[in-house]
Protein 1
Amino acid sequence: MFSFQERAQQLNGIAQTDYDLVIIGGGITGCGIALDAASRETGRNLKILLLEKGDFANGTSSRSTKLIHGGLRYLKNFEFKLVYEVGREREILHQNARHLVLAEKMLLPILKAGSLGKFTTGIGLRLYDFLAGVKYEERRKMLNKEETIQEEKLLKRAPIIGGGLYYEYRTDDARLTMDVLKTACIKYHAKALNYAR
Ligand SMILES: Cc1cc2nc3c(=O)[nH]c(=O)nc-3n(C[C@H](O)[C@H](O)[C@H](O)COP(=O)(O)OP(=O)(O)OC[C@H]3O[C@@H](n4cnc5c(N)ncnc54)[C@H](O)[C@@H]3O)c2cc1C
């Protein structure tokens, strides 16, 4: 299905088919819609076509910071509901694609003259654990100065007063998009064509 050798045949098939759903754009949104529609009980008989003007995932979906949401930054803006939602979504993605969604340890250094102190950081990270439903073994750990420098030896010693350890989830965004599309096409028989504006 993804081979150029079958392209003429594919174009021909598309020209002769009436589609129920045509999706424009082969980034994570379009590929997600294709998989969602094709995999629903009610979507099994739908004819679904996705068209991408360039290569699949060549837009924003290969240029993200590769974090699965990075929910911590929303906490800074007091977007509690969003932190709750993305925490749960992150876990669903981790369960669905364990080969592509990996836990990554993050260190938040606390500086003498920084905007966040030890206490506020501790409370913030604890709140994040609670709202995002972080599993026990990945909950935040507060570190003293020596422990922080042990974790990251390249930090300048003088301004450090401590640190906070927590987890984000990292992915390969383009591969994740391709895996979603491949599942939609191979498992659920959606059709997709690239270089088709
Ligand atoms: C710097 C940066 C960092 C980010 N970091 C994160 C992060 O850490 N975590 C996170 O979850 N999200 C992050 N995001 C957001 C995330 O990357 C986007 O929300 C997501 O990739 C959007 O996907 P999309 O499918 O809507 O758009 P795109 O991936 O851009 O897909 C749209 C597609 O439509 C195609 N297209 C357009 N017009 C046509 C046409 N006429 N015919 C056919 N095809 C067409 C384009 O070629 C493109 O491939 C980040 C975004 C940026 C820019």
Note: The first helix runs from residue 7 to 15.
Protein 2
Amino acid sequence: MKVLVVGATGATGQAVVQELQSRHIPLRALVRNPYKAQAIWGNSVEIVAGNVLDRYLLTEAIGDCTHIICTTGARPSLNIFGPLQVDYLGTKNLVKAALQQKIEHLVLVSSLLTSVFFHPLNLFWLVLFWKKQAEEYIKKSGITYTIVRPGGLTNTPTTDNLVMGRADTLFSGRIPRATVAQVCVAALLCPAARNKIVEVVTSPTAPYIPIPELFAQV
Ligand SMILES: NC(=O)c1ccc[n+]([C@@H]2O[C@H](COP(=O)([O-])OP(=O)(O)OC[C@H]3O[C@@H](n4cnc5c(N)ncnc54)[C@H](OP(=O)(O)O)[C@@H]3O)[C@@H](O)[C@H]2O)c1
């Protein structure tokens, strides 16, 4: 197994890289800015420059990788096409390149509430709407996938337990990026995670259940 982490210099992407490293799983980080990547990891991570808007670069970037975890997201900006381009068209490009390169499993970090069109987050250039279109494309593409929809992301680790629900069953809550990273990596290793959409948050009242069991219950 070798995992391509797309959007690796983002906050969740960095957590995914750390989780893979802690499990000694080989990885390659696809980044827009190799200087930024170098400043974060030095030479400890294999880096490839790329952009999800360039499908041909993506095919090359995948190279000998067998699995993909995608944590991209349009950065907040005045570009009204940002989410359309990055969250939808970029993900579509990635899926096409992944199919061409015979990727075994693709994990996408999406978001809670992608099915709720009239949500204030859609005021940011329809970001939830475009994430939902990307999810629909993945489901129909034929690729083996897991779509992970987290609640509000935090950088503070927690002792709270993970709650995992089916699509469109969780509507609020928060989750540390490190926990999202654990879910993404576990998805690649867990047959029960295949071809599922899971919603994840953490809760102080939830019982502890191992991630593979949570996937099996969804
Ligand atoms: N913030 C929340 O509370 C929340 C809640 C639920 C879901 N989400 C979603 O979870 C995901 C991860 O969130 P995050 O806060 O970790 O995101 P983030 O820190 O903003 O990272 C986004 C990553 O996407 C990369 N990216 C943007 N455009 C790209 C392109 N054209 N080609 C390749 N890479 C590109 C960025 O590259 P650079 O590093 O070069 O900028 C960055 O690495 C996003 O999809 C976000 O929408 C967020």
Note: The first helix runs from residue 11 to 22.
